[in-house]
Amino acid sequence: MSQNGNQLAIIKKDTVDVVASKVKEFQEKGELHFPANYSPENAMKSAWLILQSTVDRNKRPALDVCTRDSVANALLDMVVQGLNPSKKQCYFIVYGTQLVCMRSYFGTMSVTKRVSGAKEIDAAVIYEGDEVDYEMVNGRIKNLTHKQKFANINKENIIGAYCTITLDNDNVYTELMTIDELRQAWSKAQFWGKDQDVEKKGSTHEEFKQEMAKKSVINRACKKFLNSSDDSSLVMSRINRADEVKEEALLEEELQQNANKEIIDIEYDETPIQEQQAQTEPEIKATGTEGPLF
Amino acid sequence: MINIKALASGSKGNCYYITDGHTPLLLEAGISFKSIQKQLNFKTTSIAGCFVTHEHKDHSKSIAEVLKSGIDCYMSKGTAEALNIHHHRVHNIEAKKQFKLGTWTILPFEVEHDVSEPMGFLFANEVGDKLLFATDTYYIKYKFKGLSHIMIECNYSLDILNQNIEVGRVPKIMKKRLLRSHFSLENVKEFLKANDLSKVQEIHLLHLSDNNSDEQRFKQEIQALTGKLVYVL
Asked: What is the rounded distance in angstroms from the CA atom of residue A110 to the CA atom of residue A92?
């Protein structure tokens, strides 16, 4: 136990403390400003507690399998974006040996507010029978009105969802998605089967379809804002990093599991003498990096 | 003895001519048939068969003309369906079901690309040479014994790709697909390390990306790793 404690202390020193000093440095240089209600120290403390019980797919502790670099980077991603894991604005996931800080949609909303100065971000689901009316002005949705009867609310009858980002009184951005577009977005995720066209029974997207629809349309609306902002700050450089790290780490994991495994070979009816000899030898070892075996 | 001649390699078109001195074959038909004829001095009648790995145009562009000229074409059912070709010279082949063609014995195997039933091929001739042909696959599930010739895709290197994305030469969105459709230098190395290369005479690197590769570097690194003759096609 004490050894375990020691090890944890070392990891903490190598990661949390390093990140904390890095953040201080950014702040002193004026590269990073936190809103008044964000405390990077508190976020780090929460993250450290959560990390101690985070495990990978095989139930191994994240702090054992993840590289220190990836732990430090995940923490830095969290702090630079001003996220707090105890508010479920982000969570930590292990991909192979990489720890990744994934933003939840609450997190995406909070970052968008910070980057764009938006006041409110709201989303709603449209059901069959709802009255939705809007104008298109200069390619933008304007004055969206939505009348809903309570009796229309039924997750089986969702026909779309929208999200509004209120910058100020005259400036409201609206993103609208039909159910087909929502499903198209969901179908890009790994849980969605190849020939699947609706949500699988019992899946999160089937059980909490309204919430998932809102989440998707909020993410899309915010993404447009984030990616079109000209803010080349530290925050922007961290915003899309998680997806990239995830892609590379997932690929590495997939290859470790599947690549270069089973030996296949041509089978001969009349085995040539040369082949017979080869077959009686024990399994041939790979040449590795040492060089050629002539 | 196996002779390999690249008529074209890369995303603009792929076509290779291989022969063991008895049975010449075409691998892929991703360039115009005219160009194939020209490069082979119009000696296409002796070609015993054309092998197509998947339906993308840079691998199948002139398939109709190849068939019309009387060459038998071999591909998976998925590939034939995706190409929508029906011709008595199209032979559907299945993964891990070997067959003979002239002096060659051929074992097709599944590869990993974002298309319908893509294939790689292992060719063995009667004097014990073995050629592996695998392209447009981000990894290979299998290992092989006693290979003498390797023709393998080596499309991009992750660090070059990341650099290109950073300076905006390559759109970020391309990376996601590339990672799961094409063989990287890094993963080709892992493949080579996992296989017994003791009998390998030549390694041919195929299908280098225009933007995300470095011919000299790829050749040197594979040569350093394997100590074999490396050609970049």
From this structure: 18
Q: What is the pLDDT of residue A134?
A: 95
Task: Report whether pLDDT(B210) > 80.
Answer: yes
Query: Under a CB-based contact definition with an 8 Å cutoff, are residues B228 and B30 in contact?
Result: no
Q: Mutate which of A246, A251, A253 to test chain B, going by most B C-beta atoms within 10 A?
A: A251
Strands A90-95 and A98-103 come out as antiparallel
**With contacts defined as CB-CB under 8 Å, which chain A residues touch B190?**
255, 259-260
| Contact of A70 with A77, CB cutoff 8 Å | no
Residues A36 and A45: their CA atoms lie apart, in Å, by 18
With a pLDDT cut of 90, the percent of chain A lying above it is 50
More confident residue, A81 or A240: A81
Identity of the amino acid at B15 = C
Distance between CA atoms of residues B162 and B176, nearest Å = 11
The three-point CA angle A37-A39-A45 to 5° equals: 140
> Are the C-beta atoms of residues A141 and A176 closer than 8 Å to each other?
yes
Q: Is the pTM of this model over 0.90?
A: no
- What whole-number distance in Å separates Cα of residue B17 and Cα of residue B15? 7
The whole-number average pLDDT for the span B45-58 is 96
Give chain A positions within 8 Å (CB) of B197. Answer: 286-287, 292-293
Tokens of B125: 């001739």
**pLDDT one-digit tens code per residue, B125-172:** 999 999 999 999 999 999 999 999 999 999 999 999 999 988 989 988
Query: Which of B 132-161 lie inside 8 A of A, CB atoms?
Result: 138-146, 158
Q: Using the beta-carbon criterion (under 8 Å), do A262 and B124 form an inter-chain contact?
A: no
Indicate the pairing of strand B104-110 with strand A140-147: unpaired
What would the DSSP string read from start to end of B169-216?
Answer: SS-HHHHHHHHTTS-BHHHHHHHHHHS--TT--EEEEE---SSS--HH
pLDDT at residue B2 is higher than 60: yes
Q: Best of B115, B139, B181, B228 to disrupt the A interface by mutation (most A CBs within 10 Å)?
A: B139
